[in-house]
Amino acid sequence: MLSKLRPALVSFVVLTLICGVVYPVIVTSIAQIAFPNQANGSIITVTQENGTTIDVGSALIGQTFTKPQYLIGRPQGTSQLSPVSEEQKALIQERVAWWRALDPENSGAIPSDLVTASGSGVDPNISPEAAEYQVDRIARVRNISAKTVREIIARYTTGKLLGLWGESGVNVLKVNLALDGRIQ
């Protein structure tokens, strides 16, 4: 019995050390060296008027903004609804109505990413088209020029990876912090 139990226990201890200690230390070390900002959560820190700094969020996790003076991101939360289900259609219509009530002066087509949640439910970015849809409202409410709003949006718009993969995106949190003058 002991002769069969001993190899199992040794294997258990060895694999626990390899998979539970050695591998995580190696992967964490590589991440800290190669991608320190992302490995530490891409935290956005701002300096307050009194000189202290505070963490205001992550550039990788979306936050909910609903006030008209802010760039508003994708709906948060996930749903496993079929894109053609009646429930999904009703949810989209509800969101379209919300956008129309928020900005009745804007009769343009609402970009789909403003009325559909992302797969993760916490997407920090919206499409440049979704940001452009909101420019006039933000400028009007803040009493600044649309050109100023567009310049801020352009500053926090990223392109495709190597110009080939993915989609361009606008980081909602960074734009809103810049609109408030909290980051440059």
From TrEMBL:
Which UniProt keywords are listed?
Answer: ATP-binding, Cell membrane, Ion transport, Membrane, Nucleotide-binding, Potassium, Potassium transport, Transmembrane, Transmembrane helix, Transport
User: Which InterPro entries does this one have?
Assistant: KdpC
| Coiled-coil regions, chain positions | none
Where is this protein chiefly located?
membrane
Keyword set includes Chloroplast: no
* Topology class, membrane: Single-pass membrane protein
Subcellular location, record wording:
Cell membrane
Q: Does the keyword Ion transport apply?
A: yes
The organism's place on the tree of life at top rank: Bacteria
Function of this protein? Part of the high-affinity ATP-driven potassium transport (or Kdp) system, which catalyzes the hydrolysis of ATP coupled with the electrogenic transport of potassium into the cytoplasm. This subunit acts as a catalytic chaperone that increases the ATP-binding affinity of the ATP-hydrolyzing subunit KdpB by the formation of a transient KdpB/KdpC/ATP ternary complex.
Q: Which family does it belong to?
A: Belongs to the KdpC family.
Q: How does it assemble?
A: The system is composed of three essential subunits: KdpA, KdpB and KdpC.
What is the protein's given name? Potassium-transporting ATPase KdpC subunit
Q: Which organism is it from?
A: Acetobacterium malicum
Q: What's the source species' lineage?
A: Bacteria, Bacillati, Bacillota, Clostridia, Eubacteriales
